[in-house]
Amino acid sequence: MSSISEFFKLKENRTSIGTEVRAGIATFLTMAYIIIVNPVILSKTGMPFAGILFATVLVAAISSILMGLIANLPFAVAPGMGLNAFFAFSLCLGMGVKWQTALGVVFISGIIFLILTITGVRESIIKSIPESLRYGVAAGIGLFLSIIGLTSVKFIVSSPATTVAFGGLNTTTVLFLIGLAITGFLVARNVKGSLIIGIISTSILALIASKVIPGAESLLSIPTEAVALPSLDVFFQLDILGALTLGMIVPIFTFLFTDIFDSLSTFLGVSEVGGFIEKNGQPRNVGKALFVDAIATTISGLFGTSSGTTYIESASGVEEGGRTGLTAVVTGLLFLPFMFLSPLLSFVPTVATAPILVLIGLFMMKPVAKIKWDDYEESIPAFLALILIPLTYSITQGIVWGFLSYTILKILKGKISELPIMLYIIDAFAILSLVVH
Fold first, then answer.
1. Type and span of the H or E element at 136
2. CA distance 317 to 127
3. Which residues contact 162 (CB under 8 A, 6 or more apart)?
4. Helix (H) or strand (E) segment spanning residue 156
5. DSSP states along 87-107
6. Are the CB atoms for 111 and 407 separated by under 8 Å?
7. How far apart are CA 97 and CA 285, in angstroms?
8. Alpha carbons 206 and 200: distance in angstroms, whole number
């Protein structure tokens, strides 16, 4: 035990093994929903559910453990919400890219992320990204995820007259509303693991409904077994050569850009909660943390899932007293048993995950409050990014028009000197994406 304490510097951080273990469990409970939700989203591309689940668990376990061992921070890592939506709905379903090629895109973006982190170039990229755009994109992705949840249960449907409309009340939408109410209540009461409890509760209700309500049998499929060996259906199935084409330049950049500022925003947010900010204003060990984050994205492409990223849910562990990497190691270890439960977890119906997507959308709206709405040079680009992501059903389009409008407004206001060179490079990629599109 003393060696563990010395390795993680528990005494210096005024914590104990017991506290770190409790914090790791708290973090796991708040982010365990990703074990189910990530396969649900990515399976829309035709990828096998069981294979994605194994990849999700493996990436979360390995990356979180590495975060603890290398950066000694209580930050957990797993395939990111928003990044999985871009993978499935923008890249594969929107652009018609095969999922094998999309995995190649994830892998290449991870390699570039690693290179940028090691060489220090990532810092110039981070500095060139306007804060208002970071907030707008995050909120826009939140709205996007909420729309995915609402449309997946046909609570919102397409309409030739009004574009979208209310889908009406039926067994599925009523179950969705009940699940949303249950999970929302648990969230409001700050119950640990509220999202995963909500998924389980709604799944049980769907099972009961499928047995007693005529015509509701299609709500879910009952698994024939509870445990199975991990599926390797998507393991090392990436198409790197297919991703090394002109048309994939912008998707690679989008993954890279989103991953970098998503990770940085999380590091800053959780570091503020835990008091991990150094005298220079940077989070403690941020370089090592970003290095692990880049590794997470790289192995995500290899194992068969969308990009890995640091989770804001890590704040729940910090609030429980987690102060070192032992918290992240415990969280990572807790993921491992679930790689054998794919048959049981595949039983979870869409109606049980849809409320979670809506609530995650709510959580991702928080940065909107940080946008300086009275400063129109900042707020117009942020608003365009926020609204265009859900309305175009494309994260890329929101990012592209957010950056271009920001640059144009600054130029028209005679503030060219405020624009860093790196921002022009980003704009060039944005224009290229429009041409390719």
1. helix 131-152
2. 29
3. none
4. strand 156-159
5. IIIIIITTT---HHHHHHHHH
6. no
7. 37
8. 10
| Residue 213 Cα to chain centre, angstroms | 35
Whether pTM > 0.85 for this model: the answer is: no
Residue 313: half-sphere exposure toward Cβ, Cα within 13 Å: 30
Contact indicator for 46, 94 with CB cutoff of 8 Å: no
Phi, psi at residue 307, to the nearest 5°? -55, 140
| Cα angle, residue 53 at apex, residues 52 and 57 outer, rounded to 5° | 115
Helix 49-66 and helix 286-303, axial crossing angle in degrees, nearest 10: 160
pLDDT at 240: 95
Q: Output phi, psi for 79, to 5 deg.
A: -55, 130
309 phi, psi to nearest 5 deg: -155, 165
C-beta separation of 63 from 295 below 8 A: yes
116 within 8 A of 125, measured Cβ to Cβ: yes
- State the SS3 of 14-36: CCCHHHHHHHHHHHHHHHCCHHH
What's the one-letter identity of residue 377? E
CB 371 within 8 A of CB 382: yes
End-to-end C-alpha distance for the chain, whole angstroms: 57
Residue 348 carries which side chain, given as an amino acid letter? V
Q: Return the residue matching tokens 């997470």.
A: 296
Q: Which residue type, as a one-letter code, is found at position 269?
A: G
| Residue 74 pLDDT grade (very low, low, confident, very high; cuts 50, 70, 90) | very high
> Could you tell me if 425 and 149 are in contact, meaning their C-beta atoms sit under 8 angstroms apart?
no
**What pLDDT, in 10s, does the model give residues 205-236?**
999 998 888 877 777 777 777 788 899 999 99
Task: Measure the CA dihedral 126/131/134/135, to 10°.
Answer: 160
- How many angstroms separate the CA atoms of 54 and 39, rounded? 9
Instruction: List the structure tokens of 253.
Output: 């950049």
For residues 17-39, average pLDDT = 90
Number of CB atoms found within 10 A of residue 248's CB: 21
Task: Give the tens place of pLDDT for each residue, 377-430.
Answer: 999 999 999 999 889 887 778 888 999 999 999 999 998 888 888 888 888 877
